[in-house]
Amino acid sequence: MNVRKTSAAFAAVATAGASSFFLGATPAMAAPGEPCLDGVLVEPGICELSYTDGVENVFTPTAEMTQLEVLLVGAGGSGADQPEVNTAGYAAAGGGGQVTYIDFSGSTDEIDIAVAAAGGSISTADNGSIADSAANGSDALTTEGSNIGGNSGDNEYEGYSGTLAGGGGAGGDADVANGGDGVIVSSLVAPGSLFENDDRCFGGGGAAGSATAQGFPGCGGGGPIDALGTGLVAAVPNSGGGGGGLTTTQSAELRAGADGVVLVRWNAAPVTLTFDVRGKGVAPAAQEVIPGFAPTAPVAPKAAGFEFKGWFADAALTVPVDFSTPLTESTTYYASWAPTLAATGSTTDAASLPIALGILAAGAGLVVAATARKRRQS
């Protein structure tokens, strides 16, 4: 599946930034926790750790990570430099980085990880027996008589060659001034993959523009800020997008392709839910719950002389438990009890107690009055 960005979508991406559009996880799940170690829970039962820096990293799997998968994104190429205003209308954009996927499931060997830097290293993951890489997109070229947009990282898709040349994307050819399509992550994997529902897009080609034409980039790529070619929007950080190009001089920062990213996903370790009956009755059995899923409400406990009044999330019994709420970490639920009246089996009721006491007092008063009358009459 390939993706072409419209001008409206491009503006939204440029405004959103990398953390919310390209690297963001579902907000309700994205919190570091016990089952994910240093990662975040991005879907029920799925943890993710993002590497965005250019230094070498080591990921150490655990035996509980029965599923372990890695996505590699190469860096984008830069848009061509314009040392002076170009009246002939030549402009070219950079290619998008390659996007690849590796399945490390079943291995507990350390994985050496490197993240692609624009204009430098490529993204790699290697545990000694399994290894792969994602190449960087190429830089665009502009000469007096030739204009060539950068190729995508795997060189499968070439940048357009002409007056206005967009960069090839990781998922498709450039279309004149437009950047080539990027790659949607889910399109790379088979059903059952931890990335199966990941709809993020990486590796789009940069777009070219002039005072009379505006190209639109693939996902993450840079491009003209408007139809008049007055400036560039930089590629989105860590998207693998190619840099844009204009017929006027632009800074190296605005023309630069984006760095790549390496995403590691694994199955989250179960969390434990325990029940504290606070010294009364028999506690329900503890539950092992997949993070992001809700637990099962147990059968209400029983205790002689007490009525069970529900489960609470805190020992002070101020937060009632909602068993439809997903768990993301190990926790304990606490039982609330109310004493029962032994004679009738009824329960005490704080609201009715003053009324009962009033009735008792009134009855006592009637007995006293009757006794006094009998004494006077005798």
UniProtKB/TrEMBL annotation:
The chain crosses the membrane at residues 351-372. It is found in: Cell envelope. Gene3D superfamilies: Listeria-Bacteroides repeat domain. Residues 1-30 form the signal peptide. The keyword Signal applies. It holds the Pfam family Flg_new. Keywords: Membrane, Signal, Transmembrane, Transmembrane helix. Its main location: other. InterPro entries: Gly_rich_dom, InlB-like_B-rpt, Listeria/Bacterioides_rpt_sf. It comes from the Bacteria. The keyword Signal applies. Residues 58-266 form the Glycine-rich domain. NCBIfam families: List_Bact_rpt (TIGR02543). This is Repeat protein (TIGR02543 family). The lineage of its organism: Bacteria, Bacillati, Actinomycetota, Actinomycetes, Micrococcales.
